[in-house]
# Entry
Amino acid sequence: MSRFLFSAGVLRLATLACALALGGPARAGLPAPEAHLLEGARHFREGRFGAALIEFRVADRLGAPGPARWYASAALVKLGRHEEAVAGFAEAAAAHPAGRDGLLDFYRAVALHESRLYLQADGVLAGIAAVGPRVAEQIAELRARIAKIFAAPPERATIDWYHARARAAREAARPALAGAFAAEALALAARRADGYRAEEAREVMGSVAHGSEASRP
Amino acid sequence: MGPLRTSIALLFLSSVADGATSTLPEVEVAMREALELHAALPLERPELPRLPAAPPPGRGPERPDRALAAGGEARRAAIDHAIEQAAEAAQDALASARERGAAATGRQVDADSDAAVGLGRAAETQGLVPPVPVWPAPGIPPSPAPPVP
# Structure
């Protein structure tokens, strides 16, 4: 037992020492993961979203997966990689729910919206509180836009589209995304009297519930 | 120091290392500022997507022979025009191949020339352009001229 503890302790210390030594942007007084998060935040602020994404992913590898995955997903939104961001936010929320924040939820809603997951975007937007007046205004505007397209029940061809996307995502080994498209199909089916393909959507959601895309490049 | 004490000490140190991975207020503030700054509405107006309806069984894209069978001078003229354009393109490719062949005498012509020569030959076999002898053949060095008797 003591040998195991000793090995685990040595491994952790060695990892920390390497991280501090090789941490690149590490600053005096800041551990390596935090230094990378801070560097990523600076890149993000300056609009260098690709560089920010790299820093957040390095921080994740060095042991700060909680905030790093949320921030990396926000960077993906700014890079226009919305479907990756949808999967990233879903995994961050499942693994580190404490990292959730009103601003990050706004970015998540944008990723959902741009992936045409409108009902899920509206659900996230509805739950956002404690943001500044400018973002609050944007939330109201986005919800109004979404409300307009649901004035009438969705057509069958629309629900078919979501099922097709869920199938494609599943075939591409992207379970989180497949689950998101299936969830949207289910929410749309609930807006029709006939509940078109609702059971099928539930089955897809159940089958991909435990998948992960965290290791995708 | 016995192994147990060593382990306890290392566990303490590793727990300090673990504690360092929680987000510092400095990071949170910087990231919050950055997120606020770049929060922006999507440009595109939302619209619900639709899966296009599949064509009924037995109906594929219209083929030229079917179009001809359906008749109509306009369609016939359009097809003739397309054939003329293809023949012109083949002639241009052949001319280009001749030029390149002349420049590349004694060495192998590149892949583009091969493709152009192939296209030109295809046009010849269809009778679209008169046949042109190719000498020397691509990739084969010219043989010495036959002795004059």
